[in-house]
Prior knowledge:
1 helix; five-stranded antiparallel beta sheet; mainly beta
Amino acid sequence: xxxxxxxxxxxxxxxxxxxxVQDAVVRxxxxxxxxxxxxxxxxxxxxxxxxxxAGGRGHRTRAGLHFDFVNGARSEGIDLNAKDGVLxxxxxxxxxxxxxxxxxxxxxxxxxxxxxxxxxLEARLRDLGGAWAARGEPRHELD
Length: 143
């Protein structure tokens, strides 16, 4: 499996990253905002949708995602004190507020969110290690 290394500088790029991190599993303690560096980082075990699995189980891989030029971060519906709490990342989006500034939204299963106030959109996703067999393929019930 080829390791991913992606850069997002606009909403179209971010949609690609969002698709690759859909259903990633994130420990609450593995994400944080470094105010002095203006950077928000999260480590995750992402489901490798791009790898396919031809009748077998899919794979997960350790990955890092960071956003630069972050002026503020806030969360809703997430217990930040539960460092071992596990979140499932569903999607990432960007909304322009005053070009090129805007707000990045990380949406998690169960309604939790992280909102990042950014000067401009700059996100980097990189796989950090080998892949392993996933316990199962993520499934979503459609209403």
